[in-house]
Amino acid sequence: MLVRIVRMAFQEGKTSEFLALFDASKQRIRAFPGCRHLELLRDLDQPTVYVTYSHWESPEALEQYRRSDLFITTWAATKALFADRPAAFSLETVETVSL
């Protein structure tokens, strides 16, 4: 499984537009083949910074999503709202610690 984290800083006054975009696409993203989990997080200290946290079956599943019309149109609309370059990371779980 692949964990994808994308950190996005938005222009002042543009977060409501982003939240509307996310709301309109979140169910389709989550239902995309290979997507196992999707969360939207907000930075407590920087309220214009949001992070998506998602789980994908494989790098190939994520790449299929990134080539889809859903991603292309959603990302284009989201990019227009950025205050800074986004940072994206693809990770794999090394160890999970439970009590």
The spatial strand order of the largest sheet comes to 2-3-1-4
Oligomer: single chain
> SSE order, as H and E?
EHEEHHE
Number of domains: 1
Organism: Larkinella insperata
GO molecular function: monooxygenase activity
Enzyme class: oxidoreductase
Pfam families: ABM
Comma- or semicolon-separated keywords:
35% helix, Alpha-Beta Plaits, 99 residues, alpha+beta, 4-stranded antiparallel β-sheet, Quinol monooxygenase, Dimeric_a/b-barrel
Briefly characterize the structure.
This protein has 99 residues and is an alpha+beta fold. It has helices at 15-30, 59-66, 69-79; strands at 2-9, 35-42, 49-56, 87-91.
Structure description:
Helices cover 35% and strands 29% of the residues. It has one domain (2-91): Alpha-Beta Plaits. It has three helices and four strands. The chain has a four-stranded antiparallel beta sheet. The mean pLDDT is 97. With 99 residues, it is an alpha+beta fold.
List the helices and strands and how they pair.
Layout lengths: L1 E8 L5 H16 L4 E8 L6 E8 L2 H8 L2 H11 L7 E5 L8
Antiparallel strand pairs: 1-3, 1-4, 2-3
